[in-house]
Amino acid sequence: MTDRKPLGTNFESWIDRQIREAEERGEFDDLPGKGKPLPDLDKPYDEMWWIKQKLRSEGLSMPLPPTLQLRKEVEEALEEAAGARSEGEVRRILGDVNDLIREAIRTGLSGPPLNLVPYDVEKVVERWRASR
Q1: Which of 23, 58, 71, 104 has the fewest beta carbons closer than 10 A?
Q2: Contacts of 68 (CB under 8 A, 6+ apart)
Q3: For residue 6, what pLDDT band results from cuts at 50, 70 and 90?
């Protein structure tokens, strides 16, 4: 059973009245985004939308398990090596990456399987030369 509106009260609730009065005073005029569509309105609902939006606006990223973080770092390093200016720079980047991979294999990291082995520096340098 639903509650009935008390006798003598208006249909307009206290909140509705406050909103209406604020609109009449113009407090909602010139708000950012006025007249523009809501962003991501056509995307499927994601209950973590506000966290992801905050991370994007702050330039942050979700923390990854150590193995996935290492994979990401290795991928970024390989991209950096592909754009390196010299063979020595490619070798230095790959040496650093291989050290990280060896250390992770030796000590073990939590998270999904690492599935990485040290890179063959000569093969990567060969590909780097071929792309020049």
Answers
A1: 58
A2: 111, 112
A3: low
Beta-carbon contacts of residue 123 (< 8 Å; ≥ 6 apart): none
Q: How crowded is residue 78: how many other Cβ atoms within 10 Å of its Cβ?
A: 15
Identify whether the C-beta of residue 64 lies closer than 8 Å to the C-beta of residue 72.
yes
- Tell the residue number behind the tokens 């030796």, with chain if given: 106
Tens digits of residue pLDDT in 19-48: 888 999 999 888 888 888 877 788 888 888
Contact 61, 55 (CB under 8 A): yes
pTM of whole model > 0.90? Answer: no
* DSSP SS3 for 63: coil
Q: What is the CA radius of gyration of the chain?
A: 28
Q: What local confidence, expressed as pLDDT, does residue 1 receive?
A: 40
DSSP 9: -
The residues, ordered by sequence, that sit 6+ positions from 115 with a Cβ below 8 Å of its Cβ are 71
